[in-house]
Specification:
Layout: E1 9-12, E2 19-22, H1 26-30, H2 36-50, H3 70-78, E3 114-115, E4 122-123, H4 126-133, H5 137-146
Antiparallel strand pairs: 1-2, 3-4
C-alpha cells in the first residue's frame, strides 16, 4: 500500500472565512472526487488565478503619437516618394471629383431629392413643392440666382 502523508495543511476558504484541513494523498490527487475537501481546494486555486499577473498586458504601453511636428511634415514633403500628379495641401490643382455633386433644396437648404420641371428649383419634400407652386416668376428667378442658375432674358 502506498504511504499516506499524515501532514495536514490549513487552507483558507474565501466563501466561509474558516480554515479547513485538507489531507493530500497520492490516491486523492489521481482520482477526482467531488468531496467537500476537493471543492475547497478548487476555490482556493480559483482565487489564486485572479491574482496571477497577466503577461500579455504591457505596463509600459502608450498609445502611438498622433501629431507630428512641422519639421517632420516639411521633411516628408521634400522627399519625392509619391506621384507628382497627386493632389496635396500645397497643390490646389486636382482632378474633378468622381462622386456626383450634392444637390440642396433652394428653399430650405436640405438635401434635394426632387427638381421642379417647370421652374427648375430643387426641393426637399412635398411641403416645399406646395410653397414653390405659389411663387411668382421674380421670386423663382431670385432663388435660381442664389445658386447661379438664373435665366436672364433680354
Amino acid at each position: 500500500a502506498p504511504k499516506r502523508n499524515t501532514r495536514r495543511a490549513a487552507v483558507a476558504t474565501p466563501s466561509r472565512g474558516k480554515t479547513a484541513s485538507v489531507t493530500p494523498s497520492i490516491q486523492e490527487s489521481s482520482s477526482r472526487s467531488t468531496t467537500p475537501q476537493s471543492v475547497d481546494s478548487f476555490s482556493v486555486q480559483q482565487m489564486n488565478l485572479l491574482q496571477v499577473p497577466r503577461p500579455f498586458k504591457n505596463k509600459n504601453y502608450s498609445a502611438p503619437k498622433k501629431a507630428r511636428s512641422l519639421k517632420q511634415l516639411l521633411a516628408q514633403e521634400k522627399q519625392p516618394d509619391f506621384d507628382v500628379d497627386l493632389p496635396t495641401y500645397q497643390n490646389i490643382e486636382s482632378p474633378p471629383s468622381i462622386r456626383p455633386t450634392k444637390k440642396y433644396c433652394d428653399i430650405t437648404g436640405l438635401d434635394a431629392k426632387y427638381t421642379d420641371p417647370k421652374t427648375g428649383l430643387r426641393y426637399h419634400n412635398a411641403e416645399v413643392y406646395q410653397f414653390i407652386k405659389g411663387l411668382g416668376v421674380s421670386s423663382v428667378q431670385a432663388y435660381l440666382g442664389s445658386r447661379n442658375a438664373a435665366v436672364v432674358l433680354k
